[in-house]
Amino acid sequence: MIHLLSTRDLSREDAIGLLDVAEDMAAVQDREVKKLPTLRGKTVVNLFFEDSTRTRISFEAAAKRLSADVINFSAKGSSVSKGESLKDTAQTLHAMGADGVVIRHHASGAPFTLATSGWIDAGVLNAGDGTHEHPTQALLDAFTMRRRLHGTASRGRDLDGVSVVIVGDILHSRVARSNVWLLETLGAEVTLVAPPTLVPVDVTGWPANLEYDLDRALAGAPDVVMMLRIQAERMHGAFFPNSREYARTWGLDDARFAQLPASTMVMHPGPMNRGLEIAARAADSPQSTVREQVANGVSVRMAALYLLLSGERGEAR
Ligand code: CP
């Protein structure tokens, strides 16, 4: 693997291989000494042009647990506010010796540009680009599903036949897009549920069913319900339907949560709008994997950094 830009680029073998390396990394997290010397001497730059809590911190933790040096860059408070371009920003950081660049950017395609422009010579990991993709989120989601379903027998397994309902603001969701492609590769059956106003125009080309009625989708007792954040910041004003109507019609409220089988996993990538797309009872229940997703994110990002920057696939040492 040279870069990690999109889950659409991943073969089934690559995806399962990465999830298996993440299992090795998770085993390291259970040890008293959580660090590996694997990336000693390498430098990872976290290049964040958009806000983040989970992704930025878990990439930093992942790089440090592999003994890499980490440079954190946030556009806020940097020379980006003086008009410095992506190219000049990236080349400035690369001049400080980056082997890997983790980039989050508001523009869809920015990581692809960085990886293919020849501006820098480093592995590029997409940490979320506009409304396009968030591949490590989808990988940690798949890792979480695999672990809940198969426990210690997860290694080598795909998600064949697993039913996943993804609910909410599909239009603005890079998490939904990355999940749809990865879950299809791993054999899962995906149903998207959203108000008609929050569905992308190209959705008919996605490998997923489309449903507008949440109650009908949940009546099928899916294995996984993944609630998405309403991304008000991308709507440039009021969104339709309004918050109250949205919560009533497309939210996982107490009544809908009570109807779900106890075996159904409730997922959310975070940050959550409690009371809008998900009720506190669902978010904090034993069926919720929200905190597991965050913990698993470190293992999955360790695996991605290891595979990109060590240039080989294998057992973690
Ligand atoms: N899930 C996710 O990307 O969260 P952050 O925006 O906090 O990184």
TrEMBL record:
Keywords linked to the UniProt accession? Pyrimidine biosynthesis, Transferase
Q: Where is the Aspartate/ornithine carbamoyltransferase Asp/Orn-binding domain?
A: 160-308
> Could you tell me which Pfam families the record lists for this protein?
OTCace, OTCace_N
Q: Could you confirm whether the keyword rRNA-binding appears in this record?
A: no
Q: InterPro entries recorded for this chain?
A: Asp/Orn_carbamoyltranf_P-bd (IPR006132), Asp/Orn_carbamoylTrfase (IPR006130), Asp/Orn_carbamoylTrfase_sf (IPR036901), Asp_carbamoyltransf (IPR002082), Asp_carbamoyltransf_Asp/Orn-bd (IPR006131)
Which portions of this protein are annotated as coiled-coil regions? Answer: none
* Reaction(s) catalysed by this chain's protein: carbamoyl phosphate + L-aspartate = N-carbamoyl-L-aspartate + phosphate + H(+)
Residues annotated as domain Aspartate/ornithine carbamoyltransferase carbamoyl-P binding: 3-146
| Gene3D superfamilies, per the entry | Aspartate/ornithine carbamoyltransferase
Which residues are L-aspartate-binding?
Answer: 82, 174, 229
Q: Where is carbamoyl phosphate bound in this sequence?
A: 54-55, 104, 134, 137, 270-271
For the protein in the UniProt heading, the enzyme class is transferase
Give the pathway annotation: Pyrimidine metabolism; UMP biosynthesis via de novo pathway; (S)-dihydroorotate from bicarbonate: step 2/3
**Which EC number(s) are documented for this chain?**
2.1.3.2
Transferase recorded as keyword: yes
PANTHER family per the UniProt record, alphabetical: ASPARTATE CARBAMOYLTRANSFERASE, ORNITHINE CARBAMOYLTRANSFERASE, MITOCHONDRIAL
HAMAP family this protein is in?
Asp_carb_tr
Q: What does the annotation say about its assembly with partners?
A: Heterododecamer (2C3:3R2) of six catalytic PyrB chains organized as two trimers (C3), and six regulatory PyrI chains organized as three dimers (R2).
Q: Which NCBIfam families match?
A: asp_carb_tr (TIGR00670), PRK00856.1 (NF002032)
Similarity comment text for this entry: Belongs to the aspartate/ornithine carbamoyltransferase superfamily. ATCase family.
What is the purpose of this protein? Catalyzes the condensation of carbamoyl phosphate and aspartate to form carbamoyl aspartate and inorganic phosphate, the committed step in the de novo pyrimidine nucleotide biosynthesis pathway.
State the name under which the record lists this protein: Aspartate carbamoyltransferase
Originating organism: Agromyces marinus
Instruction: Identify the coding gene.
Output: pyrB_1
